[in-house]
Request: fold
Amino acid sequence: MESRTPPHNLDAEKSVLGSVLLDNDVFATLEGTVQAEHFYKEGHRKIYRAMDRLYRRNEPMDLVTLTEELRQTGELEGVGSVPYLIGLADGVPTAAYAESYAKIVREKAVLRDLIGASGQIMQRAFEQAAPLDEVLDEAEAAIFELATSKRRSFFESMPRLVTETFQHINELFANPDPVSGLRMGFKELDQLTSGLQHSSLNVLAARPSMGKTAFALTIALNASLREQKPVGIFSLEMSAVQLVTRMLCSEARVDMSRVRSGQLSDRDFQRLADTAGRMSEASVFIDDNADLTVMELRSRARRLTAEHDVGLIVIDYLQLMSGSSRHQSENRQQEISTISRGLKALARELDVPVLVLSQLSRAVEARPNKRPMLSDLRECVVGDTPVLLADGGRVPIRALVGTTPRVLAMDEDGRIVPATSERVWRVGVRPVFDLRLASGRRLRATARHRCFTFDGWRRLDVLAPGDLVALARHAVAAVAAGADDPALRQRAQGDLTWDTVVAIEPAGEEDVYDLTVPGPASWLADGLVSHNSGAIEQDADLVMFIYRDEYYDPHSEKQGIAEVIIGKQRNGPVGSVDLQFHSAHVRFNDLARSSGG
Reply:
């Protein structure tokens, strides 16, 4: 087969380098447009890197300084020595067209990268070693990177990073604004959070009927109508027509129940008509496919961003998504972890804030104080639960708070492996259940805490007497070896053995603790294989909750008031903000201006 030469244009490469030698200011103009890696000829890459070093040191880039720079790095002879450098400068009559030359160089580099990416895609397809949806996702991500010209090298040098970072700081200093991200449209909330940041995963969680969809739509409309940012909405619960109806009623301040029944006054109809005209110009794009996997969502979000430069993505809601076709038969908790990681990766890949809605369980309502808290996204164990360490130690979880111990965990293949925990901390007082096993072991944990069972990961509150739960075999070898039950001895194969649930009962309230283990997403609680829960909370940069006291207490003093609670903010404070909630208009407003609306 005849070999092909990769796309390149050596004349354009020489013209770029010659233009810089003729006019040093050209280099600053080209920075960010062309990089050393874009040059096809190795000698040209070395010359451009030498120019970059001179530029960073604020030294001139002429024949004398460039020759000396290349001589000191031992690269002068390799690039063609002094005569070649002289030829670069003499071969360009003017530096005025440097950007045109650079465009050609970059385009040829992208074509070469496209060929390389295509080769990798072909290899993955021929291997047939991965599920189709994963191969398609990887292929599309590779092409998307090239199409959007956002490729970056694996490593960034400190000089370049410091320069870029300080430029950003300088811009903030020159134009001070407490809201550096995308404004949500609520003054006090935007000041507390600094807005929704680029590349961030933001979680909005609440019990049903608290108004989380209305709140998210208010943010989306504000981003589109007032901040002039296109918005993509993925709705797995409501149809596009239902969402637009809510948005129309919210913006027009018309009672949605009257819209549904058709009992509108002339004034209502006119307000809706006026609002419809304004909203028809909004750059809001809705996908109401009710059966999306995280890979399908990422694929559609990439295309939407490429076509419309989306500034915000909203997903309603997390629990209705599926990880992928490959995970449909696996446990739901692991699937949520897959979704969470996928959404965080999407935010970083597209460099936009992603706002995902999440529905809290009924466990919130079991407390006297029903305000949601960060721990509601996690499931925990009591303080005296022994954690099995990789060095053979057995330490109560409360004694590990604030550390990152090396623990024992179970990997995807059911093997017990060492892993480093990310964090151990006290969560607070929560209702707990007491799980008792035939071997005499016990585990006290929150209702939704998961243990690995013969049927996969199961919550404590759905276990029943007779169910089998997994133990690390080496941790319970004596129990298995001395057991009279032949079935138990038979199951003690590999790294796991199995014990039988004798009872599981409510055990009051107690201080509970949690521990996270990236990777295996599990750890051994006194030998029981325990899940590392709360993936969405770990991946989120911002976690917000909505609470309305009037929902639980009709006589509450906070009628028409919604609390937006900031439970986590990776780079900022936590706290809460009171907003007005108008249920008929399905709308949130700042309290300070509610009297006028």
Summary: Residues 115 and 452 are 45 Å apart (CA to CA).
